[in-house]
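Reopening this one. Same input as before:
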Amino acid sequence: MCNRIIGQFFFNKSTITADVYLDLLTEYEAPQLTDLKPTTIFQQDGAPPYWGLHVCQFLNETFPGKWIGRDGPIPWPPHSPDITPLDFFYGGMQKISCIKHGSRIRDIADLKQRIRNAIATIDDTMLQQTWQEIKYCLDVLCATKGAHIEGY
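Same output, byte for byte:
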């Protein structure tokens, strides 16, 4: 299990294309995962920029047989936010942290700072709880043979 967060990364482009996403992977994410590579399984959701042929080629070379995504070597059920830690934990936690200040977000710089502040509050205990939750969701998914589940 991993006890750290890699990120935050803010895109400077208004539209994320496969080329922009590949730059993120090659210049930012992959170098931070080098020491974890033997045990890392890279997971991405179904966003269209992730489907680029050159993105898949990079993932095949960098994480051979160990990445999850559309047309990846490890199948992943489509539309499954209940088993994606970034969706069920991180995204919700950030929204709560960014809104709880009680004031409107003034501009993009203010929003970025609130996101940085939210990330800074994540500790080892929160990460361990997240891994326990995803393990539970995956166990339920296996027990139900991939059927739709509702988390409570």
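So the earlier flakiness isn't reproducible anymore. For the record, The chain has two domains: 1-76, 79-152.
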